[in-house]
């Protein structure tokens, strides 16, 4: 079994089988790329690595754009440097305690797309928002439904989330009113970060997923349910989502997740352009904590649509990919109540509030609440990989 | 009346009262900023202007980010250089015939938002897509409905548009099929380009419109109606739009359009955050030509929602603006049939095809069709300003 000469605690998210990329600074110095290992950040811009100059920049985009050959070459060499004792003398000076660094948004987001991949989630939302109709729309099992979100408000974990104001209409009320959202919610999702771009007019098949997707992050797609409910017909969610989307600071390389792959069952069989993918379902178990209390463990492995299918769909019309494109799974909910990835599902639109162990009760988020999502997956050699946390605290409306 | 020492044809889109910005190159040299005047492009990077170094770059973003003080200072000085004969000797060498240049996408698009501002258009689409319901949804007159589009597929005028493939379902048919769109359409819109960014969590009031918006372009938001109809419930348009959005190559400064301002009537009065704007309705008349034949003249002055209201709405939840954000009006249709801004309206979803003067007939676009949108507005001194063309030709599905 591969082991690093760097001591890594047994329960660390970041064994040497992971090696996720992020952007860090220490004491306000220039942000640069780093790789997480145990309790350290490896200052990779200082190591003898291919494309090391890419790591001296403030985002991962230049490295991400190089493509999967470069990603593999760097990962291979980095593994060698961190496992072979002979490199200890040259590498050790570039290990920085993680507790000493600030983490930044790891990549410049190009376009942001949010999908709707979880059948349990889509069914729950359909029942809540459209109780008189079939919960799943007629198209749902034929195509991975998605929409574009606001790339400019994707923020790194730890960024405070200001409660949004907006229009909402009380049930049975007259006209809409404007004010702070009263139904502020979370959405626990898995996000995919595009490295290799593609040309306009040239669809990317699902089989090319690993050539284009650099890695995986956790996403909290904060949602104002009252704003969303009033605005979303007929053109979809807009201000109910666009105030903030938080991502975890570490991008886990796709190559680290090969042992976590699963293939979901799909019935009916989708159209051919969607069947040559479906090799990158991933058994990732998320954990959602509200003020430190675990409120859900959404299982990404139960998602109906896989990220390679989503990639094929997103480009089937000839839409191009850019380095930095981020697409998220959509809220993940499992079949059990304690696997639901949003408060609107956990509390059934507020009608069944959650009782927290601290004696408080929640329908939706209160000012000061902190939500943290973490996740684990199987890595090579039977190891357990983590993703780091994506966290955010609600600030009162300004 | 202000006149330039550069000869400008009477019917030119680009009198000295306009001075729109673009990015050009000649004979494959380095793209750089230029300003259109009559039949020339002024190579502004070579003139004695404030911030001239900004103009030596391949996008307008750096200059756009400087804010309205800088925009006014440059416009003022540029007007002086181009109207005062004493500068003729130094400036004339930097006039390049427009026929000799290639025009590029003038700015790097950050986020792209498409609104739905025309009551006539929204009513027509409601009647076509949801015949059993009220054509306008209950929210329509309370908020400017909008959604995010794909920024990465915004292309400059002249870029070929490949007919998209996608899923569609024949009426009364069984499952969906996959193939080239059979209902490829246009949408004639006016677009607004953000220069000055804003902070996350800080809404931008409509009264600050001219501080943030740099200028105006024409937009053709190509749409595949069959793909859109099947995919858009419940999360809105996605692949039916994301294959291409064309913009005109010249960004007309807001200051050039002051004389074109109009105030639309709104009933009911919108909520207060939307009433302090509504000063930037613009009387711009578009013209849509299909293979050279005029098929419509959509009047932007009839739009229900104004761009300052759209800006206030888009940021009311605290969403930040970035330099390069583009937001479009939504398809503009007037009350008359020959003022409708899309083929789905002009042909009533294909049931009333257009007979073109060349003897051909169109329900939707055929391969090889060329669509060109132009527009005029009143400028200072009673002049007529144009916007240049946004054009595109349909190529067969690859």
Describe the structure.
Two copies of one chain form a homodimer. Chain A has 398 residues and is α+β, with helices and mostly antiparallel strands. Chain A folds into two domains: 21-103, Fumarylacetoacetase, N-terminal domain (SH3 type barrels, Roll); 112-395, Fumarylacetoacetase-like, C-terminal domain (Fumarylacetoacetate hydrolase, domain 2), CATH 3.90.850.10. In chain A, 15% of the residues lie in helices and 27% in strands. The first copy, chain A, is built from eight helices and 27 strands. In chain A, strands 6, 7, 8, 13, 14, 16, 17 and 22 form an eight-stranded mixed β-sheet that branches. In chain A, strands 9, 20, 21, 25, 26 and 27 form a six-stranded mixed β-sheet that branches. Chain A has a five-stranded antiparallel β-sheet with strand order 4-3-2-1-5, with no helix packed on it. The model of chain A has no long low-confidence stretch (mean pLDDT 96). The interface between A and B is large, with 67 and 67 residues. Chains A, B: The active site is at residue 121. Chains A, B: Mg(2+) binds at residues 221, 241, 245. Chains A, B: This is fumarylacetoacetase. Chains A, B: Substrate binds at residues 116, 130, 228, 232, 331. Chains A, B: Residues 113-388 form the Fumarylacetoacetase-like C-terminal domain.
